[in-house]
């Protein structure tokens, strides 16, 4: 979706600039803009749809040949469209239309390539590492205190908790620049919640609805654990009584939908940094999925709800 929007914006701005450059009479500007749109828009949309259909076949093609194919698609679309409706729209030269379409496609492709180079790998990797560093476990102090609290009464549980904490640190300290299987994120989240249950006991209840969740779906690393940490810190702790966190993850056609809800109270507003984890996750979703990912937060019936939607990309379930 991000590529579609950028291509549409660039192509329309280019067509508008051409109309302004060759027209000196403002009275004729609106008419010529409408005529240009009648020619440009069908070519853009048909080219984008054809390129979507050709995406998989083009993945195995060498880079230069792929670029030639991408430029040829709008060029041929312009020729086909001009051949069919040229007389009605006043297209006098098919070669001129093909030249404009091919030149515009080459310019947009070069711009997108430069943009991709600017964002990867060094810049994107540096940002991902910085974003990950912000959310390394704030719960370390509380977890260690919880382990100390049961080390005499239940040494076996304390030993298990320390092992879980070590596993969490291993996951949190690794290189987090690649997408990971959703099953791995859920496992990490469950370990985190076990540590929090050691501290909060019966005050913390968690309801998982993941029956329709594909375990091989790829997600940004450390996406679910910070959301749960937020839910515990801002939802369960200020409540002063037992509360429930609900996690629902499901596949909806070619997308993954994640919804997390926790109790909400006015006391949570006094916690500083309530939005940091959400902003962090939103930035990483944008880095990995661009405009195809969405994150929304709402309040309803004394509940704080976080909804995340992103494309279903298959990986290897672990």
Could you walk me through the main structural features you see in this protein, from its secondary elements to its overall organization?
This protein is an alpha+beta fold. It folds into 2 domains: 2-119, no CATH class; 124-311, Histidine kinase-like ATPase, C-terminal domain (Heat Shock Protein 90), CATH 3.30.565.10. 60% of the residues lie in helices and 14% in strands. The longest helix is centred in the first third of the chain and has 27 residues, at 63-89. The chain is elongated, with a radius of gyration of 26 Å. 26% of the residues are buried. The mean pLDDT is 80.
List keywords for this structure.
single chain; 318 residues; elongated; 2 domains; two-stranded antiparallel sheet; 5-stranded mixed beta sheet; alpha+beta; Heat Shock Protein 90
Highest-level CATH class of the largest domain? Alpha Beta
Radius of gyration: 26 Å
What is the name of the CATH superfamily of the largest domain?
A: Histidine kinase-like ATPase, C-terminal domain
On the 0 to 100 scale, the average pLDDT is 80
Report, as a whole number of angstroms, the end-to-end distance: 29 Å
Number of strands: 7
The strands making up the biggest β-sheet line up spatially as 2-4-5-7-6
Q: Which of globular, elongated, flat, extended, rod-shaped describes the shape?
A: elongated
How many distinct helices?
11
Number of domains: 2
**What structural category arises from helix and sheet content?**
alpha+beta
String of helices and strands: HHHHHHHHEHEEHEEHEE
- Largest sheet report: 5 strands, mixed
Instruction: Outline the low-pLDDT stretches.
Output: none
Portion in helices: 55-70%
Q: What is the second-level CATH architecture of the largest domain? A: 2-Layer Sandwich
CATH fold descriptor of the largest domain: Heat Shock Protein 90
Q: What fraction strand?
A: 5-15%
